[in-house]
Design a protein that fits this description.
246 residues; alpha/beta; 2-enoyl-CoA Hydratase, Chain A, domain 1; four-stranded mixed sheet; 44% helix
Length: 246
């Protein structure tokens, strides 16, 4: 097995390289791996480093522990924001950067993917999950919407009906539901999740990198319009003013 070369351990985010795979681990298990401004800034800073490393072909994104992949935005910190933060939503910009990566991105979903955490998985090219993962969007319960690409990427991936089921209907999907509906490709026991993701990543890395990049762009070309993404942020900004600042 290839040696693990640490790139960063900030306490909030851990990144390392192992052979042809770069790993990004959200590391706030005491907060269900919810992201705050510092974590997003760190994520932003490490992406170009991984992107510029030609030996890295695949990026695996996961969370620390077995409870949560990512619980989305830190709710306490959200309460301090206003509509201007929603108009220029940092998580949306980060997830767009993940989606635009020239590498193949694989979400290794170790636990609950909630709100922005689920949006992060949707920004990845591929998704596998542990058998204890859960998937849901709680935003409309709080007077908000998924505004970091969730309304767009979910409907593009699974269709409008399934997007409405999760976002409007508030359904909570189990790992089995996610597999049945095409959100994830495979379910594996938690103890085997990282090794399974690594094996798949190594298989992908054996393919021609230029062909992979071109194929990825060709597949996504139909969804290049920014209209829906812009509407998300405008709607979220209005909701911030109407709901969070009462």
């Amino acid at each position: 097995m290839d040696k693990k070369d640490w790139l960063l351990d900030s306490g909030l985010l851990r990144t390392w390289k192992q052979g042809t795979i770069g790993y990004i681990q959200i590391h706030r298990p005491e907060k269900a791996n919810a992201y705050n401004e510092s974590l997003l800034d760190t994520f932003f800073s490490v992406l170009p480093q991984i992107e510029s490393d030609e030996s890295i072909r695949v990026i695996i994104i996961t969370g620390a522990g077995n409870r949560s992949f990512c619980a989305g935005a830190d709710l306490e910190e959200m309460q301090t924001k206003d509509y201007r933060a929603a108009l220029n939503l940092k998580s949306a910009r980060l997830f767009h950067a993940v989606a635009a990566s020239s590498k193949i991105t694989l979400a290794c979903i170790n636990g609950a993917a909630v709100g922005g955490g689920l949006e992060l998985t949707l920004a990845c090219d591929l998704r596998i999950s542990s058998n204890q993962a859960r998937f849901f969007f709680p935003e409309t319960k709080f007077g908000l919407i998924p505004a970091a690409g969730g309304t767009q990427r979910l409907s593009q991936l699974l269709g409008v009906a399934r997007a409405k089921e999760l976002i409007l209907g508030g359904r909570i999907w189990s790992a089995e539901d996610a597999l049945k509906n095409g959100l994830v490709t495979e379910i594996v026991p938690f103890a085997e999740l990282i090794s399974k993701a690594q094996k798949w990543g190594e298989e992908i890395a054996q393919r021609d990198p230029v062909a992979l990049e071109f194929a990825k762009k060709a597949i996504e070309m139909e969804y290049s319009s920014h209209t829906g993404y812009n509407y998300e942020r405008i709607a979220e900004a209005l909701l911030y003013q109407l709901r969070l600042k009462k």
